[in-house]
Design goal:
With 433 residues, this protein is of the alpha/beta class. It has three domains: 2-111, 3-Layer(aba) Sandwich (Rossmann fold), CATH 3.40.50.12160; 141-367, Alpha-Beta Horseshoe (pyruvate-formate lyase- activating enzyme), CATH 3.80.30; 373-432, OB fold (Dihydrolipoamide Acetyltransferase, E2P) (Beta Barrel). The protein has 13 helices and 18 strands. It has helices spanning 11-26, 50-65, 75-87, 103-111, 159-163, 171-183, 201-204, 209-216, 237-245, 262-267, 275-285, 304-317, 344-367, and strands at residues 2-7, 30-32, 40-45, 69-74, 93-95, 141-145, 147-148, 167-168, 188-192, 224-227, 249-254, 290-297, 321-326, 373-381, 387-391, 402-405, 415-423, 428-432. β17 and β18 (428-432) form a beta hairpin. α6 runs parallel beside α8. The longest helix has 24 residues, at 344-367. It is globular. The protein starts with a strand and ends with a strand.
Amino acid sequence: MKIALINHGCAKNLVDSELMLGALAKKGYELTLDENEADVVIINTCSFIHDAEKESVDSILQMVDAGKSVVVAGCLPQKHKDELKNAIPEIDAMLGATSPEQIVDIIENLIKGKRKDFIQSTPKFIYPENVQRQQITVGASSYIKIGDGCNYECGYCIIPKLRGKYVSRPIENIVNEAMQLALKGVTEIVLIAQDTSSYGIDLYGKQALPQLLEELDKIDSLSWIRIMYAYPTQMTDELINAIASLDKVVKYIDIPLQHSHPRVLKSMKRPVMDYEQLVAKLRKMIPDVTVRTSLIVGYPGETEEEFEHLYNFVKNVKFDRMGAFEYSREKGTYSDALKPQISAKIKHQRYKKLMELQKEISLKNNQKYIDTTLKCIVEGYSDDGTVILRSEHDAPEVDGLVYAVSQRAVIPGDIEEVKITNADDYDLYGEII
C-alpha cells in the first residue's frame, strides 16, 4: 500500500503533515509524493477562512473522483465533522486537528476494511515527541512548531475552537529537534505557533520564549533563528532584549496587529493599546529591526472613518513588511453575528487602497538598501543561473527575495554577503561578494 499526502494551509499545518508522514514511516508504510501512484491519499485541510475550505474540499472531490481511498485530516473535519461525512460519503476516514500520530491507527483500520475517525470533541493538541518529521520540503529553512492552540478569543478567529487551549512543548525537545534539523543541513529555523510569544506560560508558569531563544542560540551549526506570530501584549522587555542581544536571532518581528482603531480592536476582542508607540519601542530597543504585521479590512461595522484611521496608521508607522486581508465571515465566530457586515466591493476597495500605500512604503524601504551589503541565505537558482536568496529582513514564503549574480558557485543554505544594486516594490537585486 502506497500513501500520499496533500497539504493545505499554513506552516503549522505543514509541520502536522510531516508528523503524520513521520508516524507512518516509523511503522514501515511506503510513502510517495505523487498522489497518482498512491492507494491512499491523506488530505490535511485548512478551515481558517472560506476560500481555504473551498480549496480543501476541491482536493477531496478530486481524489474521490480519481478513485483513491481518502482520509481527510486537520481543521475541516474538526470543524464540520458531520456535514463533511454527509456531503462526501466517499471519505474513508477523518482525523481532527490535534493528534497527528493517530493517523497510524486510522490507516491500520482501513487495511482491515474498518472505518475509524479520531476527532476530539474538546480539542487539545498532542505533539508526538517520539516521531521524527518526514520533511516534505527540505531546504535552507525549516519550521519548528513550539506550541499549538490559543488562549485568546479574537472575534474573527475559529482556531481556539479547532485546536483548543495553548499547549507548549518542552524546551529540551525543541532544542533537540533544532539540532537534528541542523545536522540535515538546515541553516535557519523558523519558530511557529498560534502565538509564539505566549510560549511556556502553561508549562513553566511564565513566558519562556527568551530562555528558549538562549538555548537555540548555542547550536553551532545554525545561522539564523526567526520568530513568527507574536502577540502585542506579550512583547515584554525581556523578550525584546533577547531578540536584540542574541547573535543568531534575526532582528525581525512578526506581530499581527489586525487594526489600529480602538473601537474596531475592542470589537475584534484584540488588545486596545497604542500600536504606534509599541512599534517605536521595538525600533528603539532593536537597532535595524524589521517589523512585519498583518491587518484586516472590512471587519463588521468598520466605518469609512475607522478605515481611514487604519490607513493613516500604516502611513505613519511605515511597516517594513505588511500583509492585509479582507475580512472573511466564519460561522462559530463572535463576528459572524455582528452588523452591519461590509459588502465584498467595499472590502476589496479598502484592501486595494491599503496595499497600494504599502507598495509605496515597501519600495522606499527597499531603496535604502541600495549600495549596502546584506547577509542573505541561498535558496537556490533560477533557470537562467541567477542566485535566489533571502535577506535576514525577509521570512520564507511571505516576504521578498534577493536576486543576485555570482562569479562563483554557491550552495543552498549558505549565508552569503550580497551587495545590493537595485530594488523594486518587494524584491532586491545585487551581486554576491
